[in-house]
Amino acid sequence: MSNLDVPKKFIIISYSRTGSNFLVSLLNSHPNITCGGELLGKVTPNPDYSKLLNNIFNSPNKTQGFKLFHYHPMNVENNQLLFDTIQADKSIRIIFLERKNLLKRYYSLLKANQTKVWKVTNPKDITHTKSKISIDITKLIQTINSVTKYENLYKQMFREHKHITIQYEDIENNYTQTCMKIFRFLDLRKHAAIGNTIKQNPGNLKDLIENYSELEEYFKLNCHPRVILD
To answer: Is 95 in contact with 13 (CB distance < 8 Å)?
Structure first.
């Protein structure tokens, strides 16, 4: 059996509003992949993480994975044990999914909280609203600092695992090429990936954010690599 035919285990480590639903749908279009969503978003009390992971990675025939946010599981006070359990299994491959522009990510997060719509597969289900969103600069910076903290933490934690970093913007600009890169990383054959989710927030930020001029003025004086203005 060639390495291309050997099932692998993988986890997408990310945070909300990074295109993770779209990526999961793209990966699931490959005939040799089964990728779940937030399978460990919540767990039963006193979880046996080794057992939970074994139950997820239970197929002898398919490469299997799921997505895991930095704050999962959400119903336990300390999720470090889960990440320690994953760290101990070097056979698990890690896909780090990030978003370069954390201003757009934060806008998308606020919008999803407002509309209560987190995933769209039918254009008719997109919630259109004329109301703009105002962004608190202090809270934006706090969120950016939190995201980058966890990005650095888990990249350090899983540095000895076979890993790859994928940007939201890469998927947005050319998901076919990006998926080919991931398939190679997972030692899978080429496949024309097809996704089934739809972008919820098209348009320019200056037309979507109420206090865009305030943000523009602030970040012209306080440039930040993860804040990209239109």
So the answer is: yes
**Residue 136 domain-assigned (yes or no):** no
pLDDT tens-digit readout, 23-52: 999 999 999 999 999 999 999 999 999 999
Residue 219 falls within a domain, yes or no?
A: no
DSSP string spanning the chain? --GGGS--EEEEEE-SSSSHHHHHHHHHTSTTEEEESSTTSS--SS--HHHHHHHHS--SSSEEEEEEETT-STTSS--HHHHHHHHH-TTEEEEEEE-S-HHHHHHHHHHHHHH-----SSGGG-------B---HHHHHHHHHHHHHHHHHHHHHTTTS-EEEEEHHHHHHHHHHHHHHHHHHTT------------S--S-HHHHBTTHHHHHHHHHHS--TT----
Residues of the domain holding 83:
3-100+146-202
- Residue 35 belongs to domain with CATH number: 3.40.50.300
Is there a domain that residue 159 lies in?
A: yes
Distance between CA 25 and CA 36 in Å, rounded? 9
Beta bridge partners of 68: 13
Residue 46 domain flag: yes
pLDDT tens digits, 98-141: 999 999 999 999 988 888 765 656 555 555 555 789 999 999 99
State the total domains in the chain: 1
